[in-house]
Design brief:
This protein has four helices and 16 strands. The longest helix has 13 residues.
Length: 261
């Protein structure tokens, strides 16, 4: 089977994008895992199929690098919006369907995209850690020495704790830089490694810092290893959050085709 694809990244979080409107591709778990493999395949943090949607412009179907279908991916959501523009499905604005519902997005310029995210109602605090589902489940751990954190080993340890099973959780380490700026590093489940950026993780960290009164701002700059993301939101007495938007750049890395068995 020959597959045409475009490799995208959103602040270093990279994805294989495939146009599946004609329903030609029924990829198995091991095939997706192969395509995302950085030694034997194309290499990516995840794979995204753009499918037809009955009521929206298109539907996003996201798979982690381990080949399993996963929850919402914020950076992937921004990338698929640009992919839809590339395919002439949309112009500068869109609504599309993902696993957590309908998202609204706007293309702000040639490379910057703003994406609406799901409302956040349930926020849980255990000891000094905060748990938020921002479309995907996240654990937020505050630190004062983010540069020295062993993200792979410490992230893996937290991700595999019994309390987070059977599905696991994404692990985010966050450090306050100023009243409206925070630096984060993320260990992503499904990738099972640190990624250069995580969109839902950036959203979760921004909300967590507001919830824990580390900031009073509702426009937060999140600095990741792969670049900057801006999160805006409205807060209801620090109990629930709505009108959440994730904004950042996306880029095409390369285009190609690959034959898989």
């Amino acid at each position: 089977m020959k597959i045409n694809f475009i490799k995208y990244h959103g602040t270093g979080n990279d994805f294989i994008l495939i146009d599946n409107r004609s329903k030609n591709y029924f990829l198995k778990n091991n095939q997706i895992k192969f395509l995302c493999d950085r030694k034997y395949g194309i290499g990516a943090d995840g794979l995204i199929l753009l499918n037809n949607s009955k009521n929206q412009d298109f539907e996003m179907s996201y798979f982690n690098a381990d080949g399993n279908k996963s929850t919402m991916c914020g950076n992937g959501g921004r990338c698929i919006v640009d992919f839809a523009r590339y395919l002439n499905i949309i112009e500068s604005e869109t609504t599309f369907l993902a696993c957590d519902g309908v998202h609204v997005a706007k293309i702000l310029n040639k490379s910057k995209i703003s994406l609406s995210m799901s409302n956040i109602i349930n926020i849980e605090k255990k000891s000094n850690d905060i748990f938020i589902d921002s479309g995907s489940p996240h654990k937020i751990i505050q630190t004062n020495n983010i540069e020295d954190i062993d993200v792979f080993n410490l992230g893996k340890k937290h991700r595999n704790l019994l309390e987070h099973q059977p599905d696991g959780v994404n692990i985010n380490f966050v450090q306050k830089i100023s009243n409206d700026t925070f630096k984060i590093r993320t260990y992503e489940r499904g990738v099972e490694n640190e990624t250069l950026s995580c969109g839902t993780g950036a959203v979760a960290c921004a909300i967590a810092m507001h919830y824990s009164e580390q900031t009073k701002k509702n426009k937060i700059l999140i600095k990741t290893l792969g670049g900057d993301l801006i999160i805006t939101f409205d807060s209801q007495f620090r109990k629930s959050y709505c009108n959440i938007y994730l904004e950042g750049e996306v880029k095409i890395a390369f285009k190609g085709n690959i034959e898989i068995i």
